[in-house]
Amino acid sequence: MSPLLQTFANGSALGYRSLSAAAAGDYESIATVTVGSGGSSTISFTSIPSTYTHLQIRAIARTTRTGSSGIDYCGIRFNSDTGTNYVYHLLYGNGTSVTAQAGTSSSIIISGNAPRDGVTASIYGANVFDILDYANTNKYKTVRTLGGADTNGAGQITFSSGLWMNTSAITSITLSPESDSWKEYSHFALYGIKSA
Q1: How many domains does the chain have?
Q2: Is 99 a domain residue?
Q3: pTM across the whole model
Q4: Which ranges of the chain would DSSP assign to H, the alpha helix?
């Protein structure tokens, strides 16, 4: 059977639903941000619709911090809340050692990896942030993150979780680097995950 006919056959078996309709668990692009020349101290996603079950942010990031070849974290805030309403747990390793970090009554969720500008040029960290049940007004909001960066033979991998102690639906997300600004060409993409 030709691929086109097979596609229609599959659509028929699923009840003649539209071939362009999103199925449960599908990812839909909501917005993307690419940092321009000169960098940016924060990036934000605003007016996030409440029509999904979960959100995901995929990011490649680097900071403008000079004078050091280390790796900075990514900080997350929701709905412009700068109060001490966040909790986080962070586990990171560099191939020879593992370190754990935690924060309570924090003003930001610490997670992710972003090489500093002192690292070899053009190396960016890769991160995936899952924001669960973001529109559910009956529970606090949970974030889990997996990130990593290879700084030309060295590097770091990070696994973290965070909690925003607020039951409000998340309508905006702000990401900021540990220090200075996001480097030009850092890229952030927000996706919505469809419900059943």
Answers
A1: 1
A2: yes
A3: 0.85
A4: 3-13
